[in-house]
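EI: anyone free to look at a 280-residue chain?
SC: sure, send it
EI:
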Amino acid sequence: LSICSRTVEPLEYYRRFLKENCRPDGRELGEFRTTTVNIGKCLCSITTADGSALVKLGNTTVICGVKAELAAPAVDSANKGYIVPNVELPSLCAERFRSGPPGEEAQAASQFIADVIENSQMIVKEDLCIANGKLAWVLYCDIICLDYDGNLLDASVFALLAALKNVQLPLVTISEETGLSEVNLKQKNPLIIRKHPVATSFAIFDDTLLIVDPTAEEEDLATGTVTIVTDEEGRLCSVHKPGGSPLTGAKLQDCITRAITRHKEVKKLIDKVIKSITPK
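SC: here you go
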């Protein structure tokens, strides 16, 4: 298989591999790239964050920093805090992205993350309220892609979850005498995380063939993509399918089954890393 054919006829080049149930990078169709996660202050670039994580999915590298600030709750949600996710795709992470305001892909990814937070109930906004109608936490979740090689959504959800599990919030009370907030930095508590959503993405080739964890090249050649988000109970939190090839019920069920298996792997990885950084 010459390099020339990959450049001139990339789809035909891929089809030759897919017929043999493998991919040009040596993976099987249902095989994920090597996945690693680093959590916490080892990330010197964002030491100002209250929680941080770096996730690598093959070459795709995503960093997430969570910053907690205090604010007044919205009038119509007096007992709720806020979660504000933002995905950035800087021009440094791949040639396809340009400097300037967020492009369509970054905006779509930010909306996807917001939907996952809402649908999975990973954080219940009522848990972020400190004093009803007076004070609540705002969590700014900045997800920045450092190196883009496909499957941004899986890496982003993973980095977000890992970073949130690293957040420690100081105890905040409101003084009865002055009515002002008092922050006790010596007494910190972890964020209450109710659910652990994990995303699993697939590329669809020639309308029928499913491959997991696609690279950027595979995404470009695919006739569609689908991302399944599940929680630790195997509950379906989200199905994200931006157009492309339709999926039969059987194929979708197959994706969900694989996503549930993937969830166990990711959760095990996070738990292992958190255990290794927790003071004995």
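EI: The first helix runs from residue 3 to 8.
SC: 👍
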